Amino acid sequence: MEDSIRNDQDVDNATSDDEALLDPSDAAEVVPDDPDHLMDLDDEDEQADDQEQEIQLQNDSIAHFDLHSDSIFCIANHPTDSMIIATGGGDDITYVFSADVPSPLLPPSYESNPSTTRSSLQPIAKLQGHTDSVNAMTYTLGNGDYILTGGLDGQVRVHSATTTGTAQPYCLLASAQEVPEINFLAPCPHPSYSNTFALGANDGSVWIYNIESQGKETHLQV
After folding, report:
1. Residue 65's CB: how many other CB atoms inside 10 A?
2. Is residue 72 within 8 Å of residue 89, measured between CB atoms?
3. How far apart are CA 100 and CA 82, in angstroms?
4. Is residue 175 a contact partner of residue 155, using CB atoms and an 8 Å limit?
5. d(CA 150, CA 146)
6. How far is CA 214 from the centre of its chain?
7. Comparing 53 with 131, which gets the higher pLDDT?
């Protein structure tokens, strides 16, 4: 009985407290409930998001190369001439080109009448022979005498990258196919072994090759 009386008293006290806290006369302003207001806020947020997504892009590049007919999978830079770049792609082709082009004083976006069309850079060499995508590439270190290409056909191909000696630049010197697919090529950084490189395959194996020149012939020695 005492518990019931105590509970009734607690309810009465809580009710009186709520009335004291929620006395309308204490309110400075009564804001009516407007469900459309929340919808307006959502519309404003969406408009703000749309405005934030409107980004104006400027192409300030001084040149481009787009002769590949499929995706580009690898890029290599000549170790002594930073302007010489090689690319390999899904079209089974390797292109070599020079990025040594005149640089304007200001980027194209600052020009009063910027040109909307621009021709691609032209290649120095077009290396063919792979039967699947070229996805690995490197120059040998030191003087960059050779350019190596590896493909998903398992071939590693060695081309001359210099005009010294009897070999013509970018002619095929040697090739080998010991694995199903090539995943990476890495040149040896030691100056005493500039013609040595490593090959990594999809079967988990790593092969070390040395490029050996004997007269007019070049061989790959494991």
Report:
1. 16
2. yes
3. 9
4. yes
5. 13
6. 40
7. 131
